[in-house]
Amino acid sequence: MSFTIAMPTYRRGQKMAFHLDEDDVTLAWEAVRKAGLAPGTKVSPLGIVLPPWWWQGTGLVAAADAKLVLRPIPTILGPSLCVHAEGPEPDVEAEARRIHAAAPTIAEMQWQKIRLARDGPDTEADFPLGAYVTATRHDEVTAQRMAWGECKVLTWTTIGPGAAPTEFLRLQDAVGAYHVVLVESAGRRTVGLWAGTTAPKTGDVARPVLRRLWRTQGAWRYGIKFA
Amino acid sequence: MSRFGNRPEATPKALFDEAWREMAGRASSWNGKVDEAWIGTVGFGGHQPGNSSALFLQGTPSQGAAAHRVENACASSGFAIRDAYLAIRSGAVDVALAAGVESMNPYAKAHRGYWLGVSGDTEVERASGLTFPGVYAMMARAHMQAYGTTREQLAAIAVKNHRNGAKNPHAQFQKEITLEKALAAASVADPLGLFDCCSTTDGAATVLLVAEERVPEFTKRPIWLSGSGAATDTLALHDRTDLTAIPATSAALRQALAGTGRSVADLDFAEVHDCFTIAELLAIEDLGLVAKGQGGPASQAGRTDHGGDLCVVNPSGGLKAKGHPLGATGAGQAVEVFEQFHGLVGGRAVKDARVALTHNVGGSGATVAVHLWEAGQ
Questions:
Q1: Mean pLDDT across the stretch B177-190?
Q2: Do residue B190 and residue A157 have CB atoms under 8 angstroms apart?
Q3: Active-site residue, B74 included
Protein backbone atom coordinates (compact mmCIF):
# COMPACT_ATOMS: atom_id res chain seq x y z
CA MET A 1 0.00 0.00 0.00
CA SER A 2 1.32 3.43 -0.90
CA PHE A 3 1.61 6.06 1.81
CA THR A 4 3.70 8.99 2.97
CA ILE A 5 4.62 9.78 6.54
CA ALA A 6 6.18 12.70 8.35
CA MET A 7 7.98 12.44 11.66
CA PRO A 8 9.60 14.94 14.03
CA THR A 9 12.87 16.48 12.87
CA TYR A 10 15.14 15.26 15.64
CA ARG A 11 16.10 12.01 17.29
CA ARG A 12 16.01 11.73 21.06
CA GLY A 13 17.89 8.62 22.02
CA GLN A 14 16.23 5.68 20.31
CA LYS A 15 13.14 7.64 19.31
CA MET A 16 12.01 10.66 17.38
CA ALA A 17 10.58 13.45 19.51
CA PHE A 18 8.80 16.74 18.93
CA HIS A 19 10.98 19.81 19.24
CA LEU A 20 9.49 22.84 21.02
CA ASP A 21 7.90 24.08 17.82
CA GLU A 22 6.57 20.78 16.44
CA ASP A 23 3.35 18.85 16.97
CA ASP A 24 0.73 16.92 15.02
CA VAL A 25 -0.48 20.04 13.22
CA THR A 26 2.98 20.87 11.88
CA LEU A 27 3.65 17.26 10.96
CA ALA A 28 0.35 17.10 9.10
CA TRP A 29 1.55 19.75 6.68
CA GLU A 30 4.82 17.89 6.17
CA ALA A 31 2.89 14.74 5.41
CA VAL A 32 0.57 16.26 2.81
CA ARG A 33 3.49 18.11 1.21
CA LYS A 34 5.44 14.90 0.92
CA ALA A 35 2.37 13.35 -0.68
CA GLY A 36 2.37 16.13 -3.26
CA LEU A 37 -1.35 16.65 -3.05
CA ALA A 38 -2.72 19.28 -5.42
CA PRO A 39 -4.90 22.08 -4.09
CA GLY A 40 -8.51 21.05 -4.08
CA THR A 41 -7.71 17.42 -3.24
CA LYS A 42 -10.15 15.95 -0.77
CA VAL A 43 -8.64 14.49 2.39
CA SER A 44 -10.30 12.86 5.35
CA PRO A 45 -8.62 13.72 8.65
CA LEU A 46 -8.87 10.89 11.15
CA GLY A 47 -7.84 11.29 14.77
CA ILE A 48 -6.68 14.85 14.25
CA VAL A 49 -8.46 18.19 14.23
CA LEU A 50 -6.85 20.76 11.98
CA PRO A 51 -7.73 24.45 12.19
CA PRO A 52 -9.44 26.28 9.30
CA TRP A 53 -6.29 28.25 8.41
CA TRP A 54 -4.43 24.96 7.93
CA TRP A 55 -6.93 23.88 5.27
CA GLN A 56 -6.85 27.33 3.73
CA GLY A 57 -3.05 27.29 3.59
CA THR A 58 -2.76 23.82 2.13
CA GLY A 59 -5.61 24.32 -0.32
CA LEU A 60 -6.85 20.86 0.57
CA VAL A 61 -10.49 20.09 1.26
CA ALA A 62 -11.60 18.24 4.37
CA ALA A 63 -14.12 15.62 3.37
CA ALA A 64 -15.28 12.59 5.33
CA ASP A 65 -15.86 10.64 2.10
CA ALA A 66 -12.40 11.39 0.66
CA LYS A 67 -10.37 8.55 -0.78
CA LEU A 68 -7.26 9.83 1.03
CA VAL A 69 -6.83 9.72 4.79
CA LEU A 70 -4.59 11.91 6.95
CA ARG A 71 -4.03 10.44 10.37
CA PRO A 72 -1.51 10.21 13.20
CA ILE A 73 0.02 6.75 13.46
CA PRO A 74 2.21 6.06 16.48
CA THR A 75 5.31 4.06 15.63
CA ILE A 76 7.87 2.26 17.73
CA LEU A 77 10.23 5.13 16.94
CA GLY A 78 7.88 7.98 17.74
CA PRO A 79 4.90 9.90 16.43
CA SER A 80 4.08 10.19 12.76
CA LEU A 81 1.45 11.69 10.51
CA CYS A 82 0.52 9.58 7.56
CA VAL A 83 -1.34 10.12 4.27
CA HIS A 84 -2.72 6.94 2.72
CA ALA A 85 -5.61 5.59 0.75
CA GLU A 86 -8.79 4.91 2.69
CA GLY A 87 -8.84 1.60 4.47
CA PRO A 88 -6.78 0.05 7.25
CA GLU A 89 -3.65 1.69 8.65
CA PRO A 90 -0.57 0.94 6.59
CA ASP A 91 2.52 -0.62 8.18
CA VAL A 92 4.76 2.41 8.52
CA GLU A 93 7.50 0.95 10.75
CA ALA A 94 10.04 0.35 8.00
CA GLU A 95 9.71 3.91 6.73
CA ALA A 96 9.91 5.20 10.31
CA ARG A 97 13.20 3.34 10.78
CA ARG A 98 14.58 4.92 7.63
CA ILE A 99 13.61 8.41 8.81
CA HIS A 100 14.98 7.75 12.29
CA ALA A 101 18.32 6.59 10.92
CA ALA A 102 18.79 9.79 8.93
CA ALA A 103 17.58 12.25 11.56
CA PRO A 104 19.93 14.61 13.43
CA THR A 105 20.22 14.30 17.18
CA ILE A 106 20.08 16.77 20.04
CA ALA A 107 21.93 16.28 23.31
CA GLU A 108 19.78 15.12 26.21
CA MET A 109 20.56 18.26 28.22
CA GLN A 110 19.03 20.27 25.36
CA TRP A 111 15.94 18.11 25.44
CA GLN A 112 15.50 18.93 29.10
CA LYS A 113 15.53 22.63 28.24
CA ILE A 114 13.00 22.02 25.50
CA ARG A 115 10.77 20.14 27.93
CA LEU A 116 10.95 22.87 30.53
CA ALA A 117 10.23 25.53 27.92
CA ARG A 118 7.35 23.55 26.48
CA ASP A 119 5.77 23.10 29.90
CA GLY A 120 6.53 26.61 31.17
CA PRO A 121 3.79 29.04 32.06
CA ASP A 122 2.40 31.57 29.63
CA THR A 123 3.58 35.11 30.14
CA GLU A 124 0.71 37.03 28.65
CA ALA A 125 -0.33 38.26 32.09
CA ASP A 126 2.74 40.50 32.05
CA PHE A 127 1.58 42.64 29.14
CA PRO A 128 -0.81 42.43 26.20
CA LEU A 129 1.08 39.65 24.50
CA GLY A 130 0.17 39.37 20.85
CA ALA A 131 -2.24 42.27 21.10
CA TYR A 132 -0.58 43.95 18.13
CA VAL A 133 -2.15 41.56 15.65
CA THR A 134 -5.46 39.80 15.98
CA ALA A 135 -5.57 36.02 15.99
CA THR A 136 -7.71 36.10 12.85
CA ARG A 137 -5.22 38.21 10.94
CA HIS A 138 -2.29 36.16 12.21
CA ASP A 139 -3.92 32.97 10.93
CA GLU A 140 -4.69 34.63 7.60
CA VAL A 141 -1.04 35.68 7.17
CA THR A 142 0.13 32.17 8.11
CA ALA A 143 -2.15 30.60 5.51
CA GLN A 144 -0.84 33.00 2.86
CA ARG A 145 2.77 32.25 3.74
CA MET A 146 2.16 28.49 3.46
CA ALA A 147 1.94 29.06 -0.30
CA TRP A 148 5.57 30.20 -0.55
CA GLY A 149 7.88 27.95 -2.52
CA GLU A 150 11.61 27.40 -2.46
CA CYS A 151 13.50 30.47 -1.25
CA LYS A 152 17.02 31.83 -1.11
CA VAL A 153 18.43 33.37 2.05
CA LEU A 154 19.47 36.99 1.34
CA THR A 155 20.50 38.01 4.85
CA TRP A 156 20.03 36.83 8.40
CA THR A 157 20.67 37.59 12.02
CA THR A 158 20.96 35.80 15.30
CA ILE A 159 18.95 37.18 18.19
CA GLY A 160 21.16 36.90 21.25
CA PRO A 161 20.11 35.59 24.66
CA GLY A 162 17.88 38.06 26.46
CA ALA A 163 17.31 40.17 23.35
CA ALA A 164 14.19 38.41 22.11
CA PRO A 165 10.64 39.73 22.17
CA THR A 166 8.82 38.34 25.17
CA GLU A 167 6.77 35.83 23.22
CA PHE A 168 10.02 34.23 22.03
CA LEU A 169 11.65 33.96 25.45
CA ARG A 170 10.27 30.44 25.69
CA LEU A 171 12.12 29.61 22.47
CA GLN A 172 15.31 31.14 23.87
CA ASP A 173 14.88 29.11 27.05
CA ALA A 174 14.90 26.04 24.86
CA VAL A 175 17.57 26.81 22.29
CA GLY A 176 19.39 29.98 23.40
CA ALA A 177 20.12 32.36 20.53
CA TYR A 178 17.91 31.85 17.50
CA HIS A 179 18.26 32.78 13.85
CA VAL A 180 15.93 34.83 11.66
CA VAL A 181 16.33 34.88 7.88
CA LEU A 182 15.21 37.23 5.15
CA VAL A 183 14.42 35.16 2.07
CA GLU A 184 13.44 35.74 -1.52
CA SER A 185 11.26 33.57 -3.72
CA ALA A 186 9.97 34.42 -7.17
CA GLY A 187 10.74 38.10 -6.67
CA ARG A 188 9.00 38.28 -3.30
CA ARG A 189 10.69 38.63 0.04
CA THR A 190 9.74 37.82 3.58
CA VAL A 191 11.33 37.01 6.91
CA GLY A 192 10.95 34.08 9.20
CA LEU A 193 12.51 32.18 12.04
CA TRP A 194 15.09 29.66 10.95
CA ALA A 195 14.18 26.04 11.65
CA GLY A 196 17.14 24.47 9.90
CA THR A 197 19.28 21.95 11.72
CA THR A 198 22.42 24.05 11.11
CA ALA A 199 22.91 27.83 11.19
CA PRO A 200 21.79 29.70 8.07
CA LYS A 201 24.15 31.21 5.53
CA THR A 202 23.50 33.80 2.89
CA GLY A 203 22.65 32.01 -0.33
CA ASP A 204 21.20 28.96 1.40
CA VAL A 205 18.21 27.44 -0.34
CA ALA A 206 15.32 27.19 2.08
CA ARG A 207 11.70 26.15 2.15
CA PRO A 208 8.84 27.27 4.35
CA VAL A 209 7.92 24.97 7.21
CA LEU A 210 4.95 25.21 9.52
CA ARG A 211 5.90 25.51 13.15
CA ARG A 212 4.54 26.55 16.52
CA LEU A 213 5.60 30.12 17.30
CA TRP A 214 4.47 30.95 20.80
CA ARG A 215 1.72 30.19 23.26
CA THR A 216 -0.78 32.72 24.43
CA GLN A 217 -3.92 32.34 26.48
CA GLY A 218 -3.27 28.63 26.79
CA ALA A 219 -2.99 27.90 23.06
CA TRP A 220 -0.07 27.69 20.68
CA ARG A 221 -0.04 30.03 17.75
CA TYR A 222 1.48 28.75 14.53
CA GLY A 223 3.42 30.41 11.77
CA ILE A 224 5.84 29.88 8.93
CA LYS A 225 9.53 29.40 9.56
CA PHE A 226 12.18 28.50 7.03
CA ALA A 227 14.51 25.52 6.93
CA MET B 1 16.21 69.97 26.68
CA SER B 2 16.05 67.75 29.72
CA ARG B 3 18.97 65.63 30.68
CA PHE B 4 18.71 62.39 28.73
CA GLY B 5 19.24 59.20 30.66
CA ASN B 6 17.80 56.65 32.99
CA ARG B 7 15.27 58.87 34.75
CA PRO B 8 12.75 56.61 36.47
CA GLU B 9 12.08 59.36 39.01
CA ALA B 10 10.72 61.71 36.36
CA THR B 11 7.27 61.48 34.81
CA PRO B 12 6.90 62.37 31.14
CA LYS B 13 5.34 65.67 32.25
CA ALA B 14 8.30 66.40 34.53
CA LEU B 15 10.71 65.69 31.68
CA PHE B 16 8.79 68.05 29.41
CA ASP B 17 8.76 70.77 32.06
CA GLU B 18 12.52 70.41 32.52
CA ALA B 19 13.07 70.92 28.80
CA TRP B 20 10.59 73.79 28.70
CA ARG B 21 12.33 75.61 31.54
CA GLU B 22 15.69 75.46 29.78
CA MET B 23 14.16 76.67 26.52
CA ALA B 24 12.33 79.53 28.26
CA GLY B 25 15.56 80.56 29.94
CA ARG B 26 17.18 80.88 26.55
CA ALA B 27 14.41 83.10 25.17
CA SER B 28 14.24 85.74 27.86
CA SER B 29 12.00 88.13 25.91
CA TRP B 30 9.44 85.44 25.17
CA ASN B 31 6.21 85.51 27.16
CA GLY B 32 5.91 81.74 27.07
CA LYS B 33 2.90 81.67 24.76
CA VAL B 34 2.69 79.75 21.51
CA ASP B 35 -0.02 79.78 18.87
CA GLU B 36 0.09 76.06 18.43
CA ALA B 37 2.16 73.08 19.54
CA TRP B 38 3.22 69.76 18.06
CA ILE B 39 4.59 67.28 20.57
CA GLY B 40 6.08 63.99 19.51
CA THR B 41 5.71 60.98 21.75
CA VAL B 42 5.25 57.30 21.19
CA GLY B 43 3.35 57.03 24.45
CA PHE B 44 5.87 54.38 25.36
CA GLY B 45 4.86 52.01 28.11
CA GLY B 46 1.27 53.07 27.85
CA HIS B 47 1.73 56.13 30.03
CA GLN B 48 -0.79 58.81 29.06
CA PRO B 49 -1.39 57.26 25.65
CA GLY B 50 -4.18 59.69 24.87
CA ASN B 51 -4.47 63.48 25.03
CA SER B 52 -0.85 63.83 26.07
CA SER B 53 -0.26 67.13 24.27
CA ALA B 54 -2.73 68.90 26.55
CA LEU B 55 -1.02 67.42 29.59
CA PHE B 56 2.37 68.65 28.49
CA LEU B 57 1.20 72.25 28.00
CA GLN B 58 -0.72 72.21 31.25
CA GLY B 59 0.75 74.63 33.77
CA THR B 60 2.90 76.43 31.21
CA PRO B 61 2.05 79.90 29.85
CA SER B 62 0.98 78.08 26.67
CA GLN B 63 -1.78 76.16 28.39
CA GLY B 64 -4.86 76.48 26.24
CA ALA B 65 -3.03 76.69 22.92
CA ALA B 66 -3.96 74.23 20.22
CA ALA B 67 -1.72 71.22 20.57
CA HIS B 68 -1.22 67.98 18.72
CA ARG B 69 0.39 64.72 19.59
CA VAL B 70 2.65 63.52 16.78
CA GLU B 71 3.43 59.82 16.66
CA ASN B 72 5.81 58.52 14.03
CA ALA B 73 7.80 56.19 16.23
CA CYS B 74 11.39 57.37 16.75
CA ALA B 75 10.85 60.16 14.21
CA SER B 76 7.92 61.66 16.11
CA SER B 77 9.49 64.98 17.02
CA GLY B 78 11.30 65.28 13.70
CA PHE B 79 7.85 65.29 12.21
CA ALA B 80 6.63 67.64 14.95
CA ILE B 81 9.26 70.13 13.79
CA ARG B 82 8.10 69.67 10.23
CA ASP B 83 4.47 70.19 11.18
CA ALA B 84 5.33 73.40 13.02
CA TYR B 85 7.48 74.55 10.11
CA LEU B 86 4.70 73.97 7.58
CA ALA B 87 2.16 75.72 9.78
CA ILE B 88 4.38 78.78 9.96
CA ARG B 89 5.12 78.63 6.25
CA SER B 90 1.39 78.53 5.56
CA GLY B 91 0.91 81.74 7.51
CA ALA B 92 -1.58 80.19 9.90
CA VAL B 93 0.80 80.23 12.85
CA ASP B 94 3.47 82.69 13.98
CA VAL B 95 4.84 81.06 17.10
CA ALA B 96 4.99 77.30 17.26
CA LEU B 97 6.32 74.78 19.71
CA ALA B 98 7.81 71.55 18.40
CA ALA B 99 8.74 69.11 21.10
CA GLY B 100 9.20 65.50 22.02
CA VAL B 101 8.93 63.47 25.18
CA GLU B 102 9.54 59.87 26.09
CA SER B 103 9.78 57.93 29.30
CA MET B 104 11.08 54.40 28.72
CA ASN B 105 13.02 53.12 31.67
CA PRO B 106 10.34 52.95 34.36
CA TYR B 107 8.69 50.05 32.56
CA ALA B 108 9.36 46.33 32.80
CA LYS B 109 11.45 44.76 30.09
CA ALA B 110 8.41 43.00 28.64
CA HIS B 111 6.60 46.30 28.31
CA ARG B 112 9.61 47.94 26.71
CA GLY B 113 9.86 45.13 24.21
CA TYR B 114 6.20 45.41 23.42
CA TRP B 115 6.24 49.18 22.89
CA LEU B 116 9.34 49.05 20.76
CA GLY B 117 8.03 46.16 18.71
CA VAL B 118 4.71 47.68 17.84
CA SER B 119 6.40 50.45 15.85
CA GLY B 120 7.64 47.89 13.35
CA ASP B 121 5.95 45.39 11.09
CA THR B 122 3.88 43.34 13.47
CA GLU B 123 2.34 40.83 11.10
CA VAL B 124 5.55 39.22 9.86
CA GLU B 125 8.72 40.73 11.34
CA ARG B 126 7.53 40.70 14.93
CA ALA B 127 5.90 37.29 14.49
CA SER B 128 9.27 36.02 13.26
CA GLY B 129 11.00 36.91 16.49
CA LEU B 130 12.63 39.96 14.98
CA THR B 131 13.46 43.08 16.93
CA PHE B 132 14.69 46.46 15.71
CA PRO B 133 18.27 45.44 16.46
CA GLY B 134 17.52 42.32 14.44
CA VAL B 135 16.21 44.24 11.44
CA TYR B 136 19.20 46.58 11.45
CA ALA B 137 21.48 43.57 11.91
CA MET B 138 20.07 42.12 8.72
CA MET B 139 20.84 45.39 6.96
CA ALA B 140 24.34 45.33 8.43
CA ARG B 141 24.98 41.81 7.20
CA ALA B 142 23.64 42.67 3.75
CA HIS B 143 25.93 45.72 3.69
CA MET B 144 28.89 43.60 4.77
CA GLN B 145 28.18 41.14 2.00
CA ALA B 146 27.69 43.80 -0.66
CA TYR B 147 30.48 46.20 0.25
CA GLY B 148 32.86 44.41 2.58
CA THR B 149 31.86 46.49 5.59
CA THR B 150 33.38 45.17 8.81
CA ARG B 151 32.47 45.04 12.47
CA GLU B 152 35.53 47.19 13.16
CA GLN B 153 34.15 49.91 10.90
CA LEU B 154 30.83 49.81 12.73
CA ALA B 155 32.59 49.87 16.09
CA ALA B 156 34.53 52.97 15.00
CA ILE B 157 31.20 54.79 14.82
CA ALA B 158 30.36 53.78 18.38
CA VAL B 159 33.78 54.89 19.62
CA LYS B 160 33.44 58.30 17.92
CA ASN B 161 29.96 58.92 19.22
CA HIS B 162 30.83 57.92 22.77
CA ARG B 163 33.84 60.24 22.59
CA ASN B 164 31.52 63.08 21.59
CA GLY B 165 28.92 62.11 24.16
CA ALA B 166 31.54 62.24 26.89
CA LYS B 167 31.63 66.01 26.34
CA ASN B 168 27.86 66.45 26.41
CA PRO B 169 26.29 67.12 29.81
CA HIS B 170 22.88 66.20 28.38
CA ALA B 171 24.09 62.76 27.32
CA GLN B 172 23.09 59.49 28.88
CA PHE B 173 26.58 58.01 28.49
CA GLN B 174 29.29 60.54 29.18
CA LYS B 175 32.05 58.01 28.93
CA GLU B 176 34.43 57.06 26.16
CA ILE B 177 34.81 53.47 25.01
CA THR B 178 37.61 51.71 23.20
CA LEU B 179 37.37 49.83 19.95
CA GLU B 180 38.34 46.66 21.76
CA LYS B 181 35.56 47.11 24.29
CA ALA B 182 33.02 47.72 21.55
CA LEU B 183 34.08 44.64 19.64
CA ALA B 184 34.14 42.42 22.71
CA ALA B 185 30.62 43.30 23.85
CA ALA B 186 27.89 40.70 24.00
CA SER B 187 25.94 40.07 20.83
CA VAL B 188 22.48 41.57 20.69
CA ALA B 189 21.58 40.66 17.13
CA ASP B 190 24.53 39.33 15.20
CA PRO B 191 26.52 41.07 13.76
CA LEU B 192 25.49 43.90 16.11
CA GLY B 193 26.81 43.88 19.64
CA LEU B 194 25.80 45.86 22.68
CA PHE B 195 27.83 48.93 21.70
CA ASP B 196 26.34 48.94 18.22
CA CYS B 197 22.96 49.67 19.78
CA CYS B 198 21.56 52.77 21.43
CA SER B 199 20.00 52.57 24.85
CA THR B 200 16.53 53.08 26.22
CA THR B 201 16.33 56.64 27.42
CA ASP B 202 14.05 59.03 29.26
CA GLY B 203 14.05 62.62 28.12
CA ALA B 204 12.36 65.56 26.51
CA ALA B 205 13.36 68.35 24.14
CA THR B 206 11.55 71.51 23.09
CA VAL B 207 12.09 73.84 20.15
CA LEU B 208 10.49 77.24 19.59
CA LEU B 209 9.84 78.10 15.95
CA VAL B 210 8.86 81.64 14.99
CA ALA B 211 7.77 83.25 11.75
CA GLU B 212 10.56 85.27 10.14
CA GLU B 213 8.86 88.63 10.59
CA ARG B 214 8.40 88.01 14.32
CA VAL B 215 11.98 86.92 14.98
CA PRO B 216 13.22 90.34 16.22
CA GLU B 217 10.75 90.07 19.11
CA PHE B 218 12.51 86.95 20.31
CA THR B 219 16.21 87.04 19.54
CA LYS B 220 19.01 88.86 17.83
CA ARG B 221 20.70 85.55 17.02
CA PRO B 222 18.15 83.46 15.19
CA ILE B 223 18.76 80.08 13.67
CA TRP B 224 17.06 79.62 10.35
CA LEU B 225 15.23 76.44 9.50
CA SER B 226 16.06 76.64 5.81
CA GLY B 227 14.56 73.42 4.58
CA SER B 228 12.38 70.56 5.66
CA GLY B 229 11.83 67.20 4.04
CA ALA B 230 10.03 64.05 5.07
CA ALA B 231 9.16 60.75 3.51
CA THR B 232 7.78 57.34 4.32
CA ASP B 233 8.54 53.81 3.21
CA THR B 234 7.30 50.32 3.92
CA LEU B 235 7.18 49.27 7.55
CA ALA B 236 8.94 46.01 6.81
CA LEU B 237 12.49 45.73 5.54
CA HIS B 238 11.61 42.75 3.35
CA ASP B 239 9.14 44.84 1.38
CA ARG B 240 11.96 47.11 0.17
CA THR B 241 14.12 46.63 -2.89
CA ASP B 242 17.42 47.62 -1.33
CA LEU B 243 18.45 46.05 1.97
CA THR B 244 21.48 48.32 2.27
CA ALA B 245 19.82 51.72 2.24
CA ILE B 246 16.98 53.72 3.75
CA PRO B 247 15.46 55.30 0.66
CA ALA B 248 13.20 57.62 2.67
CA THR B 249 16.35 59.38 3.87
CA SER B 250 17.36 60.28 0.32
CA ALA B 251 13.82 61.39 -0.52
CA ALA B 252 13.57 63.58 2.58
CA LEU B 253 17.00 65.06 1.92
CA ARG B 254 16.04 66.09 -1.61
CA GLN B 255 13.01 67.92 -0.24
CA ALA B 256 14.98 69.57 2.53
CA LEU B 257 17.60 70.93 0.15
CA ALA B 258 15.21 71.93 -2.62
CA GLY B 259 15.31 75.65 -3.25
CA THR B 260 17.84 76.35 -0.53
CA GLY B 261 20.86 76.63 -2.79
CA ARG B 262 22.64 74.32 -0.39
CA SER B 263 24.13 70.88 -0.80
CA VAL B 264 25.52 68.42 1.69
CA ALA B 265 28.97 69.77 0.83
CA ASP B 266 27.95 72.93 2.71
CA LEU B 267 27.28 71.10 5.97
CA ASP B 268 29.48 71.76 8.96
CA PHE B 269 27.88 69.00 10.95
CA ALA B 270 24.98 66.59 10.87
CA GLU B 271 23.01 65.01 13.66
CA VAL B 272 21.96 61.69 12.14
CA HIS B 273 19.81 58.93 13.50
CA ASP B 274 22.33 56.40 14.78
CA CYS B 275 19.98 54.13 16.69
CA PHE B 276 22.51 51.50 15.63
CA THR B 277 25.99 51.98 14.25
CA ILE B 278 24.85 50.58 10.93
CA ALA B 279 22.14 53.27 10.90
CA GLU B 280 24.77 56.02 10.97
CA LEU B 281 26.73 54.26 8.26
CA LEU B 282 23.62 54.02 6.07
CA ALA B 283 22.72 57.63 6.86
CA ILE B 284 26.02 59.09 5.67
CA GLU B 285 25.62 57.11 2.45
CA ASP B 286 21.94 57.91 1.94
CA LEU B 287 22.58 61.59 2.67
CA GLY B 288 25.29 61.60 0.03
CA LEU B 289 28.15 62.46 2.37
CA VAL B 290 30.01 59.48 0.93
CA ALA B 291 29.46 57.19 -2.03
CA LYS B 292 27.45 54.03 -1.62
CA GLY B 293 29.53 51.39 0.07
CA GLN B 294 32.04 53.88 1.45
CA GLY B 295 30.35 54.48 4.79
CA GLY B 296 32.47 51.89 6.56
CA PRO B 297 35.90 53.02 5.34
CA ALA B 298 34.96 56.69 5.84
CA SER B 299 33.90 56.07 9.42
CA GLN B 300 36.94 54.00 10.23
CA ALA B 301 39.23 56.66 8.76
CA GLY B 302 37.69 59.34 10.97
CA ARG B 303 36.34 61.34 8.04
CA THR B 304 33.13 62.14 9.96
CA ASP B 305 34.94 62.99 13.19
CA HIS B 306 36.19 66.39 14.34
CA GLY B 307 39.08 67.23 12.04
CA GLY B 308 37.88 64.91 9.29
CA ASP B 309 37.42 66.03 5.71
CA LEU B 310 33.65 65.52 5.79
CA CYS B 311 31.16 67.29 8.02
CA VAL B 312 31.22 66.19 11.64
CA VAL B 313 28.57 63.56 12.24
CA ASN B 314 26.84 63.41 15.60
CA PRO B 315 28.91 65.88 17.60
CA SER B 316 26.33 65.49 20.38
CA GLY B 317 27.20 61.82 20.75
CA GLY B 318 24.17 60.88 18.72
CA LEU B 319 21.56 58.44 19.84
CA LYS B 320 24.39 56.06 20.72
CA ALA B 321 25.78 58.16 23.55
CA LYS B 322 23.37 61.02 24.08
CA GLY B 323 20.53 58.54 24.29
CA HIS B 324 17.35 57.83 22.38
CA PRO B 325 14.14 58.82 24.12
CA LEU B 326 12.10 57.85 21.07
CA GLY B 327 9.67 60.73 20.70
CA ALA B 328 12.18 63.33 21.88
CA THR B 329 15.10 62.42 19.66
CA GLY B 330 14.29 64.63 16.64
CA ALA B 331 13.76 67.71 18.81
CA GLY B 332 16.90 66.84 20.75
CA GLN B 333 18.87 66.94 17.51
CA ALA B 334 17.56 70.46 16.88
CA VAL B 335 18.63 71.50 20.37
CA GLU B 336 22.16 70.33 19.54
CA VAL B 337 22.06 72.58 16.47
CA PHE B 338 21.00 75.52 18.65
CA GLU B 339 23.74 74.87 21.17
CA GLN B 340 26.41 74.44 18.51
CA PHE B 341 25.41 77.64 16.72
CA HIS B 342 25.28 79.56 19.99
CA GLY B 343 28.57 78.25 21.32
CA LEU B 344 27.02 76.40 24.24
CA VAL B 345 28.75 73.11 23.65
CA GLY B 346 32.21 73.42 25.18
CA GLY B 347 34.65 70.77 24.05
CA ARG B 348 32.38 69.20 21.47
CA ALA B 349 32.08 72.41 19.42
CA VAL B 350 32.24 72.09 15.67
CA LYS B 351 34.62 74.79 14.52
CA ASP B 352 32.91 77.72 12.76
CA ALA B 353 29.65 75.82 12.44
CA ARG B 354 27.12 77.69 10.29
CA VAL B 355 25.16 75.01 8.41
CA ALA B 356 23.79 71.80 9.88
CA LEU B 357 21.41 68.99 9.12
CA THR B 358 19.26 66.83 11.34
CA HIS B 359 18.07 63.39 10.28
CA ASN B 360 15.43 61.55 12.28
CA VAL B 361 14.27 58.02 11.41
CA GLY B 362 11.23 56.12 12.58
CA GLY B 363 11.45 52.34 12.86
CA SER B 364 13.76 50.75 10.33
CA GLY B 365 13.19 53.58 7.86
CA ALA B 366 9.43 53.75 7.51
CA THR B 367 9.44 57.44 8.42
CA VAL B 368 12.22 59.96 7.97
CA ALA B 369 12.40 63.70 8.59
CA VAL B 370 15.38 65.78 7.48
CA HIS B 371 15.94 69.44 8.34
CA LEU B 372 18.49 71.98 7.18
CA TRP B 373 19.53 74.64 9.67
CA GLU B 374 21.64 77.76 9.22
CA ALA B 375 23.09 80.15 11.76
CA GLY B 376 21.82 83.72 11.52
CA GLN B 377 24.16 86.55 10.68
A1: 98
A2: yes
A3: yes
Contact (CB<8Å) B129/A166 = no
Residue A214 clears pLDDT 90, i.e. is over it: no
ipTM of this predicted structure: 0.94
Going by pLDDT thresholds of 50, 70 and 90, the confidence category of residue A127 is very low
**Which pLDDT belongs to residue A89?**
87
User: How far is B304 from chain A, CA to nearest CA, in Å?
Assistant: 28
For A86-95, A116-125, B325-334, which range has the lowest pLDDT when averaged over its residues? A116-125
3-state SS, chain B, equals CCCCECCCCCCHHHHHHHHHHHHHHCCCCCCCCCCEEEEECCCHHHCCCCCHHHHHHCCCCCCCCEEEEECECECHHHHHHHHHHHHHHHCCCCEEEEEEEECCCCCCHHHHHHHHHCCCCCCCCHHHCCCHHHHHHHHHHHHHHHHCCCHHHHHHHHHHHHHHHCCCCCCCCCCCCCHHHHHHCCEEEECEEHHHECCCCEEEEEEEEECHHHHHHCCCCCEEEEEEEEEECCCCHHHCCCCCCCHHHHHHHHHHHCCCCCCHHHCCEEECCCCEHHHHHHHHHHCCCCCCCCHHHHHHCCCCCCCCCCCEECCCCHHHHHCCCHHHHHHHHHHHHHHHHCCCCHHHCCCCCCEEEEEEEECCCCEEEEEEEEECC
From B143, B273, B324, B371, the catalytic residue: B324
Interface test with chain A among B107, B111, B128, by most A beta carbons within 10 Å = B128
The strand pair at A10-12 and A15-17 is best described as antiparallel
